[in-house]
Design goal:
Elements: E1 2-4, E2 7-11, H1 17-26, H2 33-44, E3 48-54, E4 59-68, E5 77-85, H3 94-108, E6 113-117, H4 123-131, E7 135-137, E8 140-144
Parallel strand pairs: 5-6
Antiparallel strand pairs: 1-2, 2-3, 3-4, 4-5, 6-8, 7-8
Protein name: GNAT family N-acetyltransferase
InterPro entries: Acyl_CoA_acyltransferase, Bact_Acetyltransf, GNAT_dom
Pfam family, one: Acetyltransf_1
Length: about 150
């Protein structure tokens, strides 16, 4: 999907499960490779996608995106349910590239808005959302997927 300086952003495959299990475990979310393989398969058939950032080895980041209809817009809204970059890989633009790729995937799915739910215990994620063009409304950060003229 996206590539920059040897970093590729692409759709996750079952072959990524082992590396994703390590990445998730480093963030305190222990899942077996088998469970991840099954969940990646299920997500491929749902209204959403899983994108990974890969550079010479296992995934260094991932974003999980789901879209759903709302009453306040004719187009679905895409929600980032997981955004994770490995601790050694942070501050290198990988999170920005993942959000950009997620935005492209959401636009392709016909979505009109991208949102991220952020808890009060996540101040660095709040700052990241502001820096990447999201507007805050309560515990939710949103941004339009329409080109701003």
């Amino acid at each position: 999907m996206t590539s920059r300086h040897g970093l590729e952003i692409r759709t996750a495959t079952p072959g990524d499960a082992a590396g994703l299990a390590e990445l998730l475990e480093s963030a305190g979310h222990a899942l077996s490779e088998r469970d991840l393989t099954e969940r990646l398969g299920a997500l491929r058939h749902a209204s959403g996608t899983v994108l990974v950032a890969v550079q010479w080895g296992p995934p260094s980041g991932l974003v999980v995106l789901h879209w759903y209809p709302t009453l306040d817009d004719a187009r679905p809204t895409a929600q980032v349910t997981t955004l994770l970059v490995g601790s050694e890989e942070r501050r290198r633009g990988i999170g920005r590239l993942l959000i950009k790729a997620a935005s492209q995937a959401a636009r392709s799915a016909g979505c009109g808005r991208l949102e991220v739910l952020v808890g009060p215990e996540e101040p660095s994620l709040r700052g990241f959302c502001r820096a990447t063009g999201f507007s805050e409304a309560g515990g939710r950060f949103t941004r339009s997927l329409r080109k701003q003229g």
